[in-house]
## 1
Amino acid sequence: MGRKILVTGSNGLIGSEVCVYFARRGFKVHGADNNQRAVFFGPQGDTRWNQQRLQTTLADFTHHELDIRNRQGIDTLVKEVSPHLLVHTAAQPSHDRAAAIPFDDFDTNAGGTLNLLEACRQHCPETPFIHMSTNKVYGDGPNRVALVELEKRWDYGDSHRDHGIPETFSIDQCLHSLFGASKAAADVLVQEYGRYFNLPTCCLRGGCLTGPNHTGVELHGFLSYLVKCNLEGREYSVFGYQGKQVRDNLHSEDVAAFMHEFYQRPRCGEVYNLGGGKENSCSILEAFEIVEALSGRRQKYTYQNKNRIGDHICYYSDLRKMKQHYPRWAVTCSLQQIIAEIVQAWHDRLQSPS
Ligand SMILES: NC(=O)c1ccc[n+]([C@@H]2O[C@H](COP(=O)([O-])OP(=O)(O)OC[C@H]3O[C@@H](n4cnc5c(N)ncnc54)[C@H](O)[C@@H]3O)[C@@H](O)[C@H]2O)c1
């Protein structure tokens, strides 16, 4: 019998990449999504194009139109599919949006995760459960690390400078945003099902995860959205920190590759910081330069002095724990390559009639 994977948020960036990655490795793929991104962000966030791509290109893909807040629906789906691997990527992913829709945000991020965990405990407790968490669970704590201001970026001014933020960094007593709080609730639940019930769970605390299939919008998916603005000749709004705020960027295929490693040798209740690390980090100003060189178009932007509430000034992931537990995993796609792929993808998408 073939192996089966169930992916929530399968129309999204990470979910769709995971579907493709495991389909190529012979898995029967079940995706669950209800295009909620279009509800959260409006038509610009519509993900149906990506769902159609999966339905038309993958040999063995089944789409389930399901809201993860539907407890009974999730229970039935997990029972019926009985997957060998569950990857949970469905979420309300934006800080700013969460403040406007606190119940939708919490019910999706925390409640939806609990629905999935409990369904797995009841029906497939041996199945590795991989949860996409976020570095926002650290709240604005990383902003308290001593920083140095360089010409085009901020950087850590202490021992974090060599490797970035580790999993031992406190998630407590700091400002999270409602999104960070709902994701922290989910993160702790996933750990708890691993530690208390011995389920093979892990939380991947993502940095900026991106790639050509991101439906970037202003409130989520900064590199994808920045490239889109550049190609359309539109202004990108920079919020504070002189545009020197730093993010580490990881290609969604490298995310899926890590999940494959975890699936092959699962552990219980683990937490990993998953990002591009220092090598793949850039500030917004640095990203502008790379995109301009690739597209040949100047980046128009406006600057607003006020930063987004709780926004990280500098963040890059310490990847040493992942690499120690899973030495076969490495970042394979450089920042330049990632941006080049995004430029090409937006170029094609903007040209094709929708
Ligand atoms: N992309 C990043 O930079 C990044 C960084 C850190 C963490 N993450 C986390 O990774 C996960 C995936 O992120 P992404 O960038 O692929 O987001 P995305 O918005 O592209 O994908 C999420 C998908 O989930 C679906 N969804 C949302 N609510 C749903 C619901 N109630 N029921 C069913 N489907 C629902 C959406 O329609 C969307 O297709 C999220 O948990 C996010 O917090 C992403």
## 2
Amino acid sequence: MTIKKDDLVVVLAGRERTKRAKVRQVMPKENRVVLVETNIAKRHSKPGVRGARQAGIIDIEAPMHISNVMLVCPNCNRPTRVGHRMLPSGGKVRACKKCGSDIP
Ligand SMILES: [Zn+2]
């Protein structure tokens, strides 16, 4: 996963293409991300069903596939692919492919 919680991303596909949103949650196993107030789906729930918080129609933020979003570099403010740079300590840090700056 090259995208983490609280990253800013741009949506590349669907109705909300070009929209920018913050990452609420990442689902590494499914390669999906949930974005704040993006890809809203209507979920119909019946009253009295166990686990339903609320009867009627509720809005949920549906997960979208990681390939449909792109990270926005906090340094140059452009959507970019993510590279990695090795640190002297042996760790890795994400790096913007466009401006080359590190992304924490
Ligand atoms: Zn950049």
